[in-house]
Amino acid sequence: MLRIIVALFALVLFTAPADAAVKVVATLPWIGSLAKEIGKDRVTVTTLVKTSQDPHSIEARPSMIAAVRRADLLIYNGLDLEVGYLPILMESARNPAINPGNAGNLNCSVYVDPLEKPATASRENGDVHPLGNPHYHLSPANIKKMAIGIGERLAKVDQANAGFYRANTARFVAQVDHKMKEWKGRKLQGKRFVAQHRFFEYLAADFGFRIVGYLEEKPGIPPSSAHIQALVSSMSGHRPDAILSTEYHDRTISGFVSSKTGVKSVIVPHDVGANGSRDWFSLMDSVIKSLE
Amino acid sequence: MRISIVVALFAVTLSPLSAMADTVELRLKKLEEAVLRQAEIIDRQQKTIEEMKLMLENGKTAEVRTSVDSSAKNSGFFGGSLMNNPYISLILDAKAQVSNLKNSALEGRGIPGFTSEGSGLRNGFNVDAAELLIFAPVDPYFNLYTNIPVNGDGAVLEEAYFVTTSLPQGFQLKGGRFKSNASRLNSQHPHAWDFAELPLAYRSFLGPEALGGENGVQLTWMPSLPVYTLLGVEALQGANPLLFGDDSNWGPHAFSAFARLSFDTGEESTLYLSPWAMFGKTRTSAVLAADETTGNSFDLRGDSRLYGLEAVWKWNSGPHKLSLQGEYLYLDQRGDLGETDPAGAMVKIEPLKRHQDGAYLQAAYHFNRFGVGARYDRMEIFADTFERSGAKQSFGGKPWRISAMTEYDFTEFSRIRAQFNHDRSDRDNRVNNEGILQLTFTIGAHGAHPF
Known about the structure:
The structure holds two protein chains of two kinds. Chain A has ten helices and nine strands. By secondary structure, chain A is α/β, with parallel strands linked by helices. Chain A has two domains: 18-181, Rossmann fold; 187-291, Nitrogenase molybdenum iron protein domain (Rossmann fold, 3-Layer(aba) Sandwich). Chain A has a four-stranded parallel sheet, covered by helices on one side. Chain A has a four-stranded parallel sheet with strand order 6-5-7-8, with helices on both faces. In chain A, helix 2 packs across helix 5 and helix 8 (225-238) crosses helix 9. In chain A, 47% of the residues are buried. Chain B has helices at residues 2-13, 16-21, 24-59, 61-66, 103-107, 184-187, 200-205; strands at 87-99, 124-139, 142-151, 154-155, 159-164, 171-179, 213-221, 228-236, 254-266, 269-284, 297-316, 320-340, 346-367, 370-388, 391-392, 400-411, 414-424, 432-444. The longest helix of chain B has 36 residues, at 24-59. Chain B is elongated and about 120 Å long. The relative contact order of chain B is 0.12.
């Protein structure tokens, strides 16, 4: 028995990694997609969260720990969005490279100026994010910063390919600028929406539309019927353009409010993979289409 | 530029030494080669410079980068957010119990042949404890965790341990006072249990709080494999009053070894398997209750080995969650059973041999905030040997229990649970039908629970 253990030990300890690509672990689909876009064939990307899952309520699975254990670079959204599973993954993975403060740990939110940072953070107000709204990825302004942040970090972790990552980053950023010209032409300016969750604030800031109300009275808490009634009556007055929701949200409430007010309910694709989107650009194309 | 290099190279190649050795033709050929090599290098450098310029222009990389100040922002990761070092949380676990048995009967209601200890619950209101958890990174090399349950009797140091964070190759050292990770259930805090109390097999072999906080050290190793694998060993002081107990002869006299294995059985499901063992010196008086007629008490000194095999399968599709879980425990214990009369005089010492087992199976289903679950406990499935002086003892019918629970999570920080137990752990003695209402609240920077 001991001999088997020693043999196994030696095997794992002294077997050189066969594959030289940088092992990236990304929490959310858009992060994984961005890392792949910039790293191309020089990286292997493992994405922990599936598009169909609610990013707020992910459970840590041992397979995720195994992935983080082998990672050269861990990239995450930050602003407490992954607080339910990522700390336990980092604590359990025994991989010093990805510990906070080391080059292998990239919290993308450091490149964002968070919106809606509350003055006080109390759970009495529901599932508030004390560091600010964490859903910043549907914003061209932010995604450029993310791309540069990821590109620079890849260049630091894998210096031999630094030029390659920087060139890909430059290409990505140029493409965002190019697409932005096209998106700016779409008529979103001045539109008014009611949203289920505080998911579209950065997008609204970039494109000049407004979120005038929320189905959720407090984030993550089912709304009271009084709140819904008040919302229905105010919506009947000011008639917003649509009710925005995402595929992982319960649609009974948005359906109810829609039927009461006649305001259409729209499912906005929330991350890469939704609506068949292959990357962040096709995601944004379908996001903007859904808002028109 | 190129011409000047050619001239310089001329000067070098026309040095007297080479001039003596080679013919003019050969020298010219060498010169040509050298010039070509130099030109190549210059070309390559030029290309790199142009590439870099292009990048700066296109990407405005430098400009955006300078606008980012990453040092000033709180990354918010260690289970908390704005809370600064250390992270503090408090968990209240309040219960109300109704049973057909009186408190006096519940208190001394052990599991004959296993333990003389009761479950600890009383009719009416129970507050097990308010668990105070304080934890934080110490420095880049260690994390520190403490768990201080406070109850009516005062505060106890249930856990206070360091964990290394920077050992290479997937190693981790843990030391101080902690709940053994040999078994997954043993290391879970009571508020994380799926039912109000531990399975019968745990109470039978380890007591109502399992092994509890033990002083010791642990070494674990997670090899870099595609499948989650964790191997660990522990050396513990062995204070658990049922399986080990304070020993006057030895320091650490309880040890454990465990392996954990897990892989996904699909996009939404995970399987977890874990064999484990605890072994060491035993000195306990909690196995047998005092004899009712003579009043004599029993004290065991010996060696124990407890083996476990746990399997968990979880399926999580977002709103729907299903978990199936089961564990088998087997005890191999040998030693001397001392019998002492009420006056304190030794009556006799006889050899004791125990080969006993137990298991539980449970299922829990959650839909959004609502959950239901059932559990079946049974002792002495394949092994029921309890031999005193070579004579097998019979305690009556085999202990078993069936439990059902339903729970509602208002949020992830508050939960109400109602549980019913049909408990035949006292063998042929009276059944305990009990209902338990449990309320659990969490405040502060409570981290996520492991799988």
